[in-house]
Amino acid sequence: MAAHVPLLINGRFIKSRSKQTLPVINPTNQKILAEVPLTTPAEINAAVRGAQEAQRAWREESLPTRMRLMLEYQRLLKNNLLPLAKIVAEDNGKTLEDAKGDVFRGIEVVEFACSLPTLMMGETAENVAKGVDTYSIRQPLGVCAGICPFNFPVMIPLWMFPLATACGNAFILKPSEQVPLAAIRLAELFMQAGAPKGLLQVVHGGKEQVDALLTHPDIRALSFVGSVAVGRHVYETGCRHHKRVNALAGAKNHMIVMPDADKNQTINALVGASCGAAGQRCMAISAAVLVGKTRQWLPDITRAMKNAQPGPWKNPKADFGPIINKISLERIRYLIAEGKKSGAQCLLDGSKCKVTGYEKGNWLGPTLFAKVTPDMSIYKEEIFGPVLVTLEAPSLEAAIELINADPRGNGAAIFTSSGAAARRFQHEIEAGQVGINVPIPVALPFFSFTGWKDSFYGDLRTYGKQGVMFYTETKTVTTRWLDSNKKTAANMTIRLK
Questions:
Q1: Quick one: signal sequence residues (predicted)?
Q2: Per the residue annotation, which of 114, 282, 346, 353 is the catalytic one?
């Protein structure tokens, strides 16, 4: 019998009382790794109450104390990087190198949280009126929550709870029900680092549990990463219940290929950005816009993509792993078939891919389409697989116009040797994260993750300075201290007492 994934409630890992569970399935072979419970309403309430109690004491701890917790946590995470990566590889199916990258990018956010004392500083102005000074201070919100996707089981939880707790909040983490195992290990290491009992709570489940967090009156803020449809639901529901919400949603990220770009570097970047992590990342390049004569590069792009092959994480030659589940795999296969029906030219079809010895795995090989137009479903839908569609544009102006017409705006890239083209692209493109000869331009955590349009719902972004603002309230204090030798209303009040 598969083990039950525990809840973390008030400093104890416990078995849920829920009778409902979901299987945690290894996508390379369909073996059940564990059973994850659908947390009961009583357990969610207990988690919130415990978080409130822990936060009341934690908010009074000094900033250096919180910083030292993060320093110790990042040390433990680094010491456990490989074991954590192996959990991710088994749970999610990523290659080992990709899983190690998942862990390391999360550690970078914890390292950023170590600089919190400076980031929590307010502002001061003297003599805003005669003898009157004003200053601002940052204070924690209270209990915050995070809802995580399957594709980065370590990185995205670490985007959330370390910064939130460093700011003085308590946190309730709901990892993806498809990949909950790494989150449990993250919580164990957090407590080992010295986190107070109840500061981090972990619950599991699906939509019902998400809605319980969204509507709970004692949760002040909620972070989410996932699809556009769910992101919109999270944002609208959370806002209706008076919560601060940032919801990172889906994407259709483009790369413009200019004729003056370095051909080999561009093609290598394009293949890695479209097939890496099996295309299951919100910053994957899933649409290439070939400008002018670069349409002639398609045979070379086809050959390069054909060399990228999926496989199990224990195979060091595998370039990427499986699709997360059977439903997602069938959806991608359906979109590939629809692309063919709509008239797109399928130069490489990975929909019938098999991996020897792992025939039950959710395998999808690299897939490449040419002659794609914006009205086709293969372009309009976020595929979330190793599928690249190519479109053609006569000029940089036309390529920018095409990209800006898309309702999503997570990221966009251009490959060129022209500074003028790069400057125009970065100025005019309607996307939050822009790459110039960089295919996946996710900035380091001292910046913020800045999706635009339907790729983001909210005001303040994730991590970076905006992340600190998201997890804190600003209080403005205006003071006036009168000369004790003067007769004032305040002095009179004192004498009367």
A1: none
A2: 282
- Please report, for residues 90, 284, 311, 358, 456, the alpha-carbon distance to residue 32 in angstroms, rounded to integers and kept in the order given: 11, 28, 19, 15, 34
What DSSP state is assigned to residue 2? Answer: P
The one-letter amino acid at 1: M
Nearest Cα residue to 456 out of 276, 283, 328, 319: 283
Given a contact cutoff of 8 angstroms between Cβ atoms, the answer to whether 209 and 38 are in contact is yes
Helices (H), 315-450: 326-341, 377-380, 396-404, 419-428
Q: How many CB atoms lie within 10 A of CB 414?
A: 28
Please list the pLDDT of the chain residue by residue as tens digits (497 residues).
Answer: 689 999 999 999 999 999 999 999 999 999 999 999 999 999 999 999 999 999 999 999 999 999 999 999 999 999 999 999 999 999 999 999 999 999 999 999 999 999 988 999 999 999 999 999 999 999 999 999 999 999 999 999 999 999 999 999 999 999 999 999 999 999 999 999 999 999 999 999 999 999 999 999 999 999 999 999 999 999 999 999 999 999 999 999 999 999 999 999 999 999 999 999 999 999 999 999 999 999 999 999 999 999 999 999 999 999 999 999 999 999 999 999 999 999 999 999 999 999 999 999 999 999 999 999 999 999 999 999 999 999 999 999 999 999 999 999 999 999 999 999 999 999 999 999 999 999 999 999 999 999 999 999 999 999 999 999 999 999 999 999 988 766 554 443 444 34
Instruction: Look up residue 239 and give its amino acid.
Output: C
- What is the DSSP secondary structure assignment for residue 258, as one 8-state letter? -
Q: Hey, what are 322's tokens? A: 């499986």
Q: What is the distance in angstroms between the CA of the first residue and the CA of the last residue of the chain?
A: 73
- Name the residue with tokens 């190690």: 100
Q: In this structure, what is the dihedral angle of CA atoms 286, 277, 38, 248, given to the nearest 10 degrees?
A: -50
**Per the structure block, which two tokens stand in for 312?**
């199990």
282 noted as active-site residue? yes
Cα distance between residue 431 and residue 404, in whole Å: 8
Total count of residues recorded for the chain? 497
Nearest to 379 by CA among 348, 352, 349, 344: 344
DSSP 205: -
Helices 228-240, 207-215: axis angle to 10 degrees equals 30
DSSP assignments along 167-199, one per residue: TT-EEEEE--TTS-HHHHHHHHHHHHTTPPTTS
Integer Cα distance of 321 and 329 in angstroms: 12
DSSP letter assigned to residue 440: S
